[in-house]
Amino acid sequence: MFDARLRPLIDKPLNAVARTLSGTGITPNMITGFGFFLGLIAAACLAFQLDYAALGLILASRIMDGLDGAVARNAAPRSRHPGAKSQESDLGGYYDIVADFLFYSGIILAFAIGRPEHALMAAFLIFCFVGTGSSFLAYAIIAAKQNRNHDQQGKKSFYFLTGITEGSETIFVLCLICLFPHWFPQIAVIFGALCLITTFGRILQARRDFG
C-alpha cells in the first residue's frame, strides 16, 4: 500500500550508494546473497529470543534488498547478452524474489521456534503470506504473458501488483514483532487478515483483467 509512496524517498539514497559501488566489482547478486545471509542470521537471533539483534539485522537485510536493484540499474553491464545497458537481469530478479519470500516466512518460522507457544499463530501468518505471495506471482506470470508493464513501484524484473500488504507493511510488522514479541498473536491476527483481504482483492483484480 505504501511502497509506491516510499519509493521516491528510498531510491535517491540507494542510487547514491549504488553509484559509489560502481566499478568495485560488487554485483547485484552478491548484494542479494549478502542480504539473504543477514536475514538468516536475523532468523537465528529470533529463535534464541535475541529480538533487538534480530531487528537490526532485519533492517540491514532489507536495505540490501533495495540496494541490489539500485546497483543493477546503475552499474556497468556484465551481461553476456549484446546491447545490455546495466546489470539488470532476469536471473537477478529471480534470485531476489526467492530470497524475499524465504526471508519473510523464515523470520516467522524462527519466531515460532523461539516461542513455541505462538506456533499456531505463526503457522496462520505463514499461510497468509502464501496467499499474498502466490496471488502476486501468479498475476505477474500472466501479466508477463500479456506484455503488461507497471513501473509505479520503480522498475522491476516483473509486474508488481499492489495491495494492502506489500513489502513496506510486511517489514514494519516484522519490526513490530521484534519490538513487542508478547503482542505476536494480536499482530498475526490483524496482519494476517489484511493479507487475506489483499489476496482476495488480487483474485478479483485478476478476474477483471484476465477473465
TrEMBL record:
GO MF annotation, one: transferase activity
Enzyme Commission identifier(s): 2.7.8.-
Source organism of this protein record: Thalassospira aquimaris
Listed InterPro entries: CDP-OH_P_trans, CDP-OH_PTrfase_TM_dom
Class of this enzyme: transferase
The keyword Ion transport is assigned to this record: no
Protein name in UniProt: CDP-alcohol phosphatidyltransferase family protein
TM stretches of this protein: 94-113, 119-142, 158-180, 186-204
